[in-house]
Prior knowledge:
Layout: E1 4-7, E2 10-13, E3 18-24, E4 34-39, E5 46-51, E6 58-60, E7 68-73, E8 78-83, E9 92-98, E10 111-112, E11 116-121
Parallel strand pairs: 2-11
Antiparallel strand pairs: 1-3, 3-8, 4-5, 4-9, 5-6, 7-8, 9-10, 9-11
Amino acid sequence: QVQLVESGGGLVQAGGSLRLSCAASGRTFSSYVMGWFRQAPGKEREFVAYVNRDGGSTSYASSVKGRFTISRDNAKNTVYLQMNSLSPEDTAVYYCAADNSGFTSPAKVDYWGQGTQVTVSS
C-alpha cells in the first residue's frame, strides 16, 4: 500500500513557476515508476510526466516538454514536478501517481494522490 500526498499548488501569473511535491508513505516507493497527471475542468485526466524507479529516465507529454521537469528522491520518498513558463492552459488539478504499467492510462494507475490545484492567471 502506498499513500501519496501532494503539495505546492497555488495561483501564479502566466510565465511564472511552481514546484509540486508528492510525498509517499511506505517502504516500496522506489519500486514504483512515479509521475503526474492533470485534469482541467470539463476535460479528461491527462498524462503529464513520469520518472523511472531510479530517476535515470523520464518522459513528458508534448504539451509540457521543455517547460516541466520531473525528478525523484528515493531517500526522501518524494517525487517533484518543477513547472516553468506556466500558461493559463496549464490550469488544472495535478495528481501524483504510482504506476508500474507504463503510465499508458489513468485506469491502470496503482495509486493516486488527492490532487493539488494549480491556477495560472493571464
